[in-house]
């Protein structure tokens, strides 16, 4: 990752009873802002656990699609909210996500899930269930958590709340580079990101927004290493 573990509180590892061992770093922001890669790198550098809450919503969406649930029927989605067994691994070096014991890390990134996840995520019963799972995973802390409502809903008492963003053009270019598919049109990706932004920001339950005490980080002109270094500096400031 290019970043050795930071020497915070006089130690390069997370020791019991130190502030770092219980810290929660909440990273929110829209699609394509770099949340996942940055959050994983920060967690690895600090020896913390990592949780991708977006993968949990994708996993539930994948289950709904595979089990014939109409994802645009909120009542049908709500009725099935408790059925899938979602388990998230928290190792930043190799995070995992399973549904009913099946590894779905690959399938949940497909276009069908991407197109449907905002609709499923807007259902209050889905959010209630997954927020409970997320809070259980966070436990006493020592974790970097990324998503869209972490600092506002999931863990409003997080020591550090970061809102990562970037221009739509920059986010679209990054998303296409991530998928490494030259056939994908950047303009089409940008339009899809704008669609998801509108859905995620406009939903009634836990909309995408920056916490009142969050730190805005615009990554448009920054590469990943620069963003990671900036966040590590913010964590160090919080621990002083």
Could you characterize what this model shows?
The protein has 240 residues and is an alpha/beta fold. The chain has helices at residues 19-22, 35-46, 53-66, 74-79, 111-121, 124-138, 150-154, 168-179, 186-202, 224-239, and strands at 24-28, 49-52, 86-88, 97-99, 102-103, 143-147, 160-165, 215-218. It has one domain (19-239): Rossmann fold. It has 10 helices and 8 strands. The chain has a 5-stranded parallel sheet with strand order 2-6-1-7-8, with helices on both faces. β3 (86-88) and β4 (97-99) form a beta hairpin. α3 crosses α6 (124-138). The longest helix is centred in the C-terminal third of the chain and has 17 residues, at 186-202. 41% of the residues are buried.
CATH class: Alpha Beta
Rg, please?
A: 17 Å
Number of domains: 1
Could you give me the name of the CATH homologous superfamily?
A: P-loop containing nucleotide triphosphate hydrolases
CATH topology: Rossmann fold
Any chance you could write out the topology, listing elements then pairs?
Layout: H1 19-22, E1 24-28, H2 35-46, E2 49-52, H3 53-66, H4 74-79, E3 86-88, E4 97-99, E5 102-103, H5 111-121, H6 124-138, E6 143-147, H7 150-154, E7 160-165, H8 168-179, H9 186-202, E8 215-218, H10 224-239
Parallel strand pairs: 1-6, 1-7, 2-6, 7-8
Antiparallel strand pairs: 3-4, 4-5
Helix pairs in contact: 2-10, 3-5, 3-6, 8-9
